[in-house]
Amino acid sequence: xxxxxxxxxxxxxxxxxxxxxxxxQAHGHKHAPGHxxxxxxxxxxxxxxxxxxxxxxxESPLDNLLGFEHAPRTPKEKEAVEAMLARLKxxxxxxxxxxAAGCKAEPAQVSALPGQDGQDSHGDLEADFSFTCxxxxxxxxxxxxxxxPRLKRxxxxxxxxxxxxxxxxxxxxxxxxx
Length: 178
Description:
Layout: H1 4-10, E1 21-23, E2 42-50, E3 53-61, H2 62-66, H3 75-88, H4 91-94, E4 95-97, E5 103-105, E6 109-114, E7 123-133, E8 139-142, H5 144-147, E9 153-160, E10 163-169, E11 175-177
């Protein structure tokens, strides 16, 4: 994993429009307390609603998003990285808040992190999304399963004006309401 992000950057793959791709280890970034184990097919979504602002964080093994966790070695793997970054740069296509809320996405912030076990074969991605809405949103349609078919389960923690809750989403259950 140590060579993944430098290799991505050397290949000219960057997030535009204000988003950043940073090597977590280079900045001393560690997994947040409570971060779950690295399990392929599973990811975590943290959602916080405060007034008309929605903050969403996605934590996922890179395998769920790319199909591999090493530096891209082939043209096909380089294309997979480009496609993943393009999807993450368009959060409104992955996370659809209630249309009546009139939400606008800010640029995504993306970091890749080495696995907790310290092995080069495991890597995680964290993506932070922020939305500013004209009206308080009441629900979210999560389209991550369509964009990233290797993702099979999404554990969600919500903090909304109605309180805190936890839900589990899967390809057949993609809507959160609060």
